[in-house]
Amino acid sequence: MRPPRMSSVIERRLLVNYRVDPEIAVSMMPPTMRPHLVNGWAVAGICLVRLGQFRPRGLPGWVGLRTENAAHRIAVEWDGPQGQSSGVYISRRDSNSLINILAGGRLFPGEHSAARFDVRETPQDLHVAYHTRDETISVSVDVGTTERFQGSELFADLAQASAFFQQGSAGYSATRGGHRLDGLELHTDAWQIEPVDIHSVRSTIFDDPNRFPPGTAELDCALLMRQVPVTWRPLESLDVKDAPATAV
Q1: H helix intervals, the chain
Q2: Domain coordinates of the chain in residue numbers?
Q3: Under CATH, to which class is 6-239 assigned?
C-alpha cells in the first residue's frame, strides 16, 4: 500500500546550521550522495520542528497530532533518472510522539527514535532542548528574533539562505536496516523564513571532537519558520547499501 500524503502546520521549525568540512561530510552519508557545497563548505545541521494538525491529507485539522521532532541532516546532491537532484540526507529522526515512533517507516516514511523535549518560547525568545531515550544525543538551543540576517559565511543574505533551504525540500532518511532510505518531500505555497540571533547552542554531535576535529564544523546561522501549512509527499525509497547508521 502506498503511504498517504500527510498534512500539517509547521508551528515552529528552527534550522541550526553548521559549515562542515566536505571530507568529513562525505564520510557521514551514503556513497550514492555527495555534499551540496556552498562557498566550499558542506551544510549540516539540526532541524527542531513542532508540527500541529499532523494527519492524512483530506482529514480535518482537529483530528491531527501535535508533535515535537528533531532531525540531524546534511544538504546533499545525487544523480537520478531525471539528472541531478538536491535535498537533504537525514541520519537520524527523533520525536516525542509514540505514534511517530511506531508508525514512522511503516505507515509513512521516516523512522523515529524516542526523545524528551523541553521547549520555552515567547514572541521574542525561543529555547528548544531535547535528549534521546537511548542517551546518545543531547541538544540545547537558545535564539532570539531579529530583523537582520548577519554573520553567516555560507549565505550573503536572507533571500539566498531561504532559497537554499526551500530547494532542499526533499529528504531521504536512514533506516535501521541500512539498505534503504525513506523519502519525504515538503510542499507549501506559504514558504516563509526569518532570521534569529543565536544565544547558545550545545550539541553532543557537533561538539564531539571525535566526529568533528577542531575547525571542521563551525556554527554558521539559524533560521526560523512559524505557522506554515505544509503537505508531506512520500518519495520512492532509495536502495543504499552500507548507509551510515549513526547521527551526523
Answers
A1: 22-26, 98-103, 158-167
A2: 6-239
A3: mainly beta
